[in-house]
Write a structure and sequence with these properties.
195 residues; alpha+beta; 9-stranded mixed sheet; globular
């Protein structure tokens, strides 16, 4: 169920649609692509069956994780689709460093790490009408105990763990989207591969 629709609060004048719960933000966009336009951002407060590369699951809990998808229409530049993921990783790295996360790096091409452990994954998929659906999952407020209980403490982390403070999820979303908008505005293969 849509909790709210904020006109013009996505990217490039697109809308932000916030759902209380979705199985997967990317899957919702793929299933409803005819209703979406360039720059629409679909966010799930709780995501129950999100997926990353190699079909790995990405579960997002309220106030702990951030899960959203962005609709991109690459037009004649479809060959640059891969670089949208790279630009997004760089945007999230930039935000994370500014927010106080330690030893942040991009694991080519679509994971963002802190102290060698993953806290952000990015998944690009193509819709039936050849648009790009860019899914982002960010571990924001998970605690060490929560990751330990899930058996992930050696491979995953969160912004909260890395920066030693709690984050406001809505603020993270807004700031990350602004950073993404700047970096995605002029995606070119020559610019994006530089890490």
């Amino acid at each position: 169920m849509v909790v709210e629709r904020q006109s013009g609060k996505g990217l490039w004048g697109g809308d932000l649609l916030v759902f209380d719960e979705l199985i997967s933000t990317n899957q919702w966009v793929l299933d409803n692509i005819a209703r979406c336009k360039r720059g629409d951002v679909i966010r799930a407060i709780r995501q129950t069956g999100g997926r990353g590369r190699f079909r790995r699951s990405w579960i997002s809990e309220p106030n702990a994780s951030l899960a959203f998808s962005l609709v991109i229409d690459p037009g004649e530049n479809a060959e640059t689709a891969f670089f949208y993921g790279v630009a997004t990783a760089l945007a999230i790295r930039s935000y994370s460093v500014a927010a106080g996360a330690k030893n942040v790096s991009v694991k080519w091409p679509n994971d963002v790490m802190a102290d060698g452990r993953k806290f952000c994954g990015i998944l690009l998929e193509q819709s039936a009408d050849n648009r790009i659906v860019l899914g982002v999952g960010i571990n924001v407020n998970q605690t060490t105990e929560a990751l330990r209980s899930a058996g992930l403490e050696t491979i995953a982390t969160s912004l909260r763990i890395s920066a030693s403070r709690e984050f406001d999820i809505q603020n993270v979303l807004g700031t990350v989207l602004r950073e993404m908008e700047v970096r995605l505005a002029h995606v070119t293969p020559a610019e994006c591969p530089r890490l």
